[in-house]
Amino acid sequence: MFPPFSENNCSRSGRRPPLKSFDFLVKLLVEEFGVNAGELVPEASPSGLGLDSLSTMEMVRELEDEFGIKFSTEQVNFSTLGEAAALADELIEAKGL
To answer: Is 52 a catalytic residue?
Structure first.
């Protein structure tokens, strides 16, 4: 669906640009789940956006696939999109990407 992150996307300094997990979530939710882009703020909850638990898990799997990360069972219990993005960013950082 979305092309995975490529090392070619790095800046001239060889460092990866700022993490974009929230931007990825916005694009995913608009294009694949039909959520209105105006509703997608970090404070928005998946259920408040009309996502049921299955859709939320699909969103998590897409995030994991995009960045090559894995959420633990505890980490999947986030309340907002901002929390999901922050957790993803932590996992990405820990992976050294």
So the answer is: yes
